[in-house]
Structures are given as C-alpha cells and as structure tokens.
C-alpha cells in the first residue's frame, strides 16, 4: 500500500469574469499607429487571462515602429505592439482553476490541523507554484510547439515554431487590456516586487540568459559589457548580483557611461577615435589594447577578462571584445547588428575563445531574474526613467526612439500603464 498522502481534491470555485473592453495599441505601418478594440481572448484549459498593468518598450518595438521591420523580419499586417509586461490574473482555464482549487483545499486542511497557521499562511506555502486569481505575474511572451527536438531538449528558445508577442508572424502584442498565455509562461511575483518591476523581468531575463546561462559567470570573474542601453545595463547588474569582481562597461555615449558607472559597472571605457582611413579590424585591435591598458587589465591570467557580453551588435565592438577577452574566455552575442561581419578568427581559434549566441531566455532564466530582484541583488528602479498612460503610448515610443525626453533627460526604459 502506498504511503503517499492523498491530497484533497477541490472543485473550481465559480468566479464570474466581468470583462471590460479590450483596447489595443496597433502598428499599421512604420510610424503609423492607432488604437483598436480587440476581441477578448477565449481560454483553453491550460491557459490564463492576464489584465495587463505595465508594459515596457523594447528596442525591437521601436525598430518595428520606426522602420516597419526588425532585422530581416518585416511587419506583415497590423500588429499590436509590446511584449515586456506584467499584470493581474483575472481568469483561469479549467485545468488551471482545478489546480488552484486543490491548492486552496490543501491550505485549508493545513490551517485546520494547525491552528497556529492561518489559511493565508498555509496558502503561501502550499500554493507557491500554483496560480490563483488576483496574482501579480510577469509574462514570458513566447509560445513554442513543445514537441520539437529543441523544445524537448530544453532549448525551447530556439524552437522554429516559436510564436512571439509583437514579432511577425505574431499572436499580437501585450499593449492591450487582456492577454492570454499558457499557465506555465506566467510567473508569480513576490509581494515585494511591484508590477513595473514585473514588466522588467523580460529584458532582465535576456541579461540573465546571456550572463548566467550562456556565459556561465562565476563569482570573482571579470566581465566586459559592450552597450550601455537597457540590456547592457541589465547585464552589468546581473554580473554584479552574481558576484563579478570587475564589470567594465563600454559605450560611445558619455552620458550612458556615467549612468553605468553609478549603476553597476566598476569601470567604464569610452573608445578612442579611429585614425583617418584606418581599417576597422586594425582599429578594433588598437582600441581593445587601449581599453585593457586604460583599465589596468592584463591580457591573460588573474584579473583578465573572462566573459564578454556584446549588447551593441556593432561589428567593431564584437571585434574589440574578441581581442580583449582572455585566452579560453567566452564571448556571448546578444545584440543585433549587421547580418554578416568580419571577426579575428585566427585569434579565436588559437586562443580557444568560445563564441555563443544569446537568444532571448530559456529554462530557469525568469525564476533567477525574479529571485535577484526579490533578494535585492539587482536594483531596477534607476532604469525606470519614464512612465506613460496608455493613451500616451505614442509619446512613449517617440521619446524612446529619440533617447531623450522633451526636457533633455536621458531615456533608459519607458513603461506604459495598462488601459484605465
């Protein structure tokens, strides 16, 4: 006879979902946007409906807005923008609702058996991984097939059948009131993590994926980050939170470098200027040497650069990183740039430098991102420079595109409130 305890099975509590309207911010063509009413999504048994409360603007959103494309991916039809979001669970599919009811029943039983534990405390313990109506959640906005070799092998982020929010061919973006996802693609936020920080979990997970997952950063190692935009700054923050000894930030914008130094970087470097008619490869080699000299970093051995994160996508930065990293070091490419570039392959080969792509996020990245923020190891507050009402979404896109607001203040991350 099995010794496993039989848990009480609860029945889903009937909850009447009273839907509001569902306005969405739509991109029709480059620089042409508007608002449209969208159908309220109908849930499958394993899905949940989220009322979107906060959405951050990503560089890819701005690319689509400004040019109608992102790299080789072009807008095919009108598309709701947005994918960096957090919100409140307002409806559960039948299977999710049953699991929620079972967790509530277990919590009730626990509180009845131990009168020193109230139902709320018991629910917090029993239902940590069980979604409940009213939960604050961060959204992972890419739905995969779950059946291909990549998905089943744990690398679902490279699934060829991925359908990603606001990325053609798209299931629509999150800049609307209601958005549905499979239940395992939403992550419950701890009480200490506000919804605006929840919206930052998507780009933070990109940084976690690059630094921790692909980069394999260990405590005491040294990191070089190219690009002091949101992803680069978040990569610096993750490196700091995971115990990096030195974090060197590189950018061509002095204001962003100043911000990076006050935020998470131990050192910053403004690249030297190229000489007249200097070949790009020669310049990148010279600039890498100057970076190491200026920052007092050896080319190999203790104190050298263990990990390079390129969040810029610029060819010269990629070349600089490969010239600056120590023999046996790792370069993770997470920024987008030209589709084809020249790299110092002889150095890569003879120094056994590992080059990895870092694409979005995968297993464990969201939970680690949430944990870093919840434990105070990553501070997102300085990055949230601007907040806009839903009706002012276009202005949010315009200042993100410009990099400064009307008063000349630098824009790091704009967050748009959900519809009122």
Automatic annotation (TrEMBL):
InterPro entries: ADH-like_C, ADH-like_N, ADH_Zn_CS, GroES-like_sf, NAD(P)-bd_dom_sf, SDH-like. It holds the Pfam family ADH_zinc_N. Residues 44-112, 127-190 form the Alcohol dehydrogenase-like N-terminal domain. GO terms for molecular function: L-iditol 2-dehydrogenase (NAD+) activity; zinc ion binding. Keywords: Metal-binding, NAD, Oxidoreductase, Zinc. Gene3D superfamilies: Medium-chain alcohol dehydrogenases, catalytic domain (3.90.180.10), NAD(P)-binding Rossmann-like Domain (3.40.50.720). Its cofactor is Zn(2+). Residues 230-374 form the Alcohol dehydrogenase-like C-terminal domain. SUPFAM superfamilies: GroES-like, NAD(P)-binding Rossmann-fold domains. GO terms for biological process: sorbitol catabolic process. Belongs to the zinc-containing alcohol dehydrogenase family. This is Sorbitol dehydrogenase. It comes from Kwoniella heveanensis BCC8398. The lineage of its organism: Eukaryota, Fungi, Dikarya, Basidiomycota, Agaricomycotina.
């Amino acid at each position: 006879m099995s010794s496993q305890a039989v848990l009480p099975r609860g029945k889903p509590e009937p909850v009447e979902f009273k839907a509001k309207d569902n306005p969405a911010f739509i991109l029709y063509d480059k620089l042409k946007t508007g608002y449209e009413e969208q159908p309220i999504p109908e849930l499958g048994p394993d899905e949940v409906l989220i009322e979107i409360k906060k959405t951050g603007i990503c560089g890819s959103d701005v690319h689509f807005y400004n040019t109608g494309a992102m790299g080789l991916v072009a807008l095919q039809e009108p598309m709701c923008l947005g994918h960096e979001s957090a919100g409140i669970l307002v409806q559960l599919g039948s299977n999710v609702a049953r699991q929620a009811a079972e967790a509530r029943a277990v919590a009730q039983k626990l509180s009845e058996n131990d009168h020193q534990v109230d139902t709320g405390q018991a629910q917090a313990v029993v239902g940590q991984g069980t979604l409940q109506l009213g939960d604050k959640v961060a959204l992972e906005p890419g739905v995969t097939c779950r059946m291909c070799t990549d998905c089943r092998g744990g690398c679902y982020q490279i699934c060829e059948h991925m359908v990603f929010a606001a990325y053609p061919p798209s299931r629509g973006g999150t800049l609307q009131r209601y958005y549905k996802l499979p239940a395992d693609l939403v992550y419950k936020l701890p009480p200490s993590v506000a919804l605006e920080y929840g919206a930052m979990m998507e780009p933070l997970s990109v940084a976690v994926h690059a630094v921790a997952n692909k980069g394999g950063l260990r405590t005491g190692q040294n990191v070089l980050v190219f690009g002091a935009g949101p992803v680069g700054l978040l990569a610096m923050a993750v490196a700091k939170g995971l115990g990096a000894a030195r974090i060197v930030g590189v950018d061509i914008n002095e204001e962003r470098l100043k911000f990076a130094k006050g935020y998470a970087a131990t050192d910053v470097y403004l690249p030297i200027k190229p000489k007249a008619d200097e070949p790009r490869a020669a310049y990148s080699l010279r600039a890498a040497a100057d970076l190491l000299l200026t920052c007092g970093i050896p080319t190999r051995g203790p104190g050298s650069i263990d990990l390079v994160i390129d969040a810029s996508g610029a060819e010269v930065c990629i070349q600089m990183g490969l010239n600056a990293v120590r023999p046996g070091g790792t370069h993770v490419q997470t920024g987008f740039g030209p589709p084809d570039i020249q790299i110092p392959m002889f150095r890569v080969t003879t120094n056994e430098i590992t080059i990895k792509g870092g694409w979005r996020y995968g297993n464990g990245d969201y939970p680690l991102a949430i944990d870093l923020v919840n434990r105070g190891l990553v501070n997102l507050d300085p990055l949230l420079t601007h907040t806009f009402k839903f009706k002012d979404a276009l202005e949010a896109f315009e200042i993100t595109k410009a990099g400064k607001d009307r008063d000349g203040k630098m824009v790091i991350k704009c967050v748009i409130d959900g519809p009122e």
